[in-house]
């Protein structure tokens, strides 16, 4: 068993103002994704100026924060929100939904593409390979917060998390997700997008990879206690939300490779 480092979720305290590591991880994810996007924007087959990317980042930040928080509220935390609507603003406590954030980002892509007279998938295919940077830092934020841990295990890398009332050795499932959804997806998508691909192909691969990895990790990641398993003693809300992602991803890949390379 590995000793959990017992992080302080608060990185800096300035009087009544507390800066949480979870929020800093989001900032790091946005910065890292923007930096990689700048490098990608210099390629002749996906040109994006630094000003255009800065404008797009503004749309994405709004989409991630608003969509992620609203998604968590309506998918996972609706009773608490009804009892105390102000909980929706406590982002530093955790409680962001990837699936909600994805919906917010898709809306942001559409709005940005429309304002610049670009196609939706020109924007989506360009940004998809850098999104895993934010997924990685977000899961590290979950680890620092000691949240979203997994089921009990006797594996040598199990950890006892201070937020676990049972104090059992558990899978550090947030680190599994950081590795798969962050590092593995980043490497695969950057490699796949190094040369021109048919429209929708990169986006389709992103949805397929994330849906597959998240579905798999959910088998050992415990569901939210107030929701539990939805069916069969193992189906979680995360897995349920991944089903349309997987179908959409596979569908986009199928469509992409049935169309000419330069189709609009």
Report on the architecture of this protein:
The chain has 264 residues and is mainly alpha-helical. 57% of the residues lie in helices and 3% in strands. The chain is built from nine helices and two strands; from the N terminus they run ββααααααααα. It has a two-stranded antiparallel sheet with strand order 1-2. The longest helix is centred in the N-terminal third of the chain and has 27 residues, at 50-76. The radius of gyration is 19 Å and the shape is globular. The model has no long low-confidence stretch (mean pLDDT 89).
Gist of the model:
The protein is mainly alpha-helical. It has helices at 21-40, 50-76, 78-83, 98-116, 120-127, 131-144, 173-192, 201-217, 237-256, and strands at residues 10-14, 17-20. It has a two-stranded antiparallel ribbon with strand order 1-2.
What spatial order of strands do you see in the largest sheet? Answer: 1-2
* Percent of residues in β-strands: under 5%
Give the SSE string: EEHHHHHHHHH
Outline type: globular
User: What is the β-strand count?
Assistant: 2
- Based on secondary structure, the structural category is mainly alpha
Stretches where pLDDT falls below 50 for ≥5 residues?
Answer: none
Radius of gyration over C-alpha positions, nearest whole angstrom = 19 Å
Number of helices: 9
Which key phrases capture this entry?
single chain, 264 residues, mainly alpha, two-stranded antiparallel sheet, 9 helices, 2 strands
Task: Show the helix and strand layout.
Blueprint lengths: L9 E5 L2 E4 H20 L9 H27 L1 H6 L14 H19 L3 H8 L3 H14 L28 H20 L8 H17 L19 H20 L8
Antiparallel strand pairs: 1-2
Helix pairs in contact: 1-2, 1-6, 2-4, 4-5, 6-7, 7-8, 8-9
């Amino acid at each position: 068993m590995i000793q959990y480092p017992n992080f302080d979720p608060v990185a800096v305290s300035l009087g009544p103002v507390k800066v949480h590591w979870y929020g800093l991880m989001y900032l790091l994810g946005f910065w890292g994704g923007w930096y990689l996007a700048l490098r990608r924007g210099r390629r002749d087959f996906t040109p994006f100026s630094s000003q255009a990317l800065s404008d797009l980042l503004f749309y994405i930040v709004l989409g991630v924060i608003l969509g992620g928080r609203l998604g968590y509220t309506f998918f996972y935390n609706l009773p608490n929100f009804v009892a105390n609507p102000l909980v929706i603003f406590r982002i530093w406590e955790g409680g962001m939904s990837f699936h909600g954030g994805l919906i917010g980002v898709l809306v942001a892509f559409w709005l940005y593409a429309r304002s610049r007279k670009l196609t939706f998938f020109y924007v989506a295919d360009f940004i998809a390979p850098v999104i895993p940077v934010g997924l990685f830092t977000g899961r590290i934020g979950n680890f620092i917060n000691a949240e979203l841990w997994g089921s009990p295990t006797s594996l040598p890398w199990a950890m006892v998390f201070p937020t676990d009332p049972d104090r059992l050795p558990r899978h550090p499932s947030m680190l599994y997700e950081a590795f798969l959804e962050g590092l593995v997806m980043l490497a695969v998508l950057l490699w796949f997008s190094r040369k021109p691909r048919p429209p929708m192909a990169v986006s389709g691969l992103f949805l397929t990879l994330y849906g597959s990895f998240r579905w798999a990790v959910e088998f050992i990641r415990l569901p939210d206690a107030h929701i539990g398993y939805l069916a069969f003693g193992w189906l979680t809300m995360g897995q349920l939300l991944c089903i349309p992602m997987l179908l959409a991803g596979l569908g986009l890949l199928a469509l992409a490779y049935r169309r000419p390379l330069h189709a609009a």
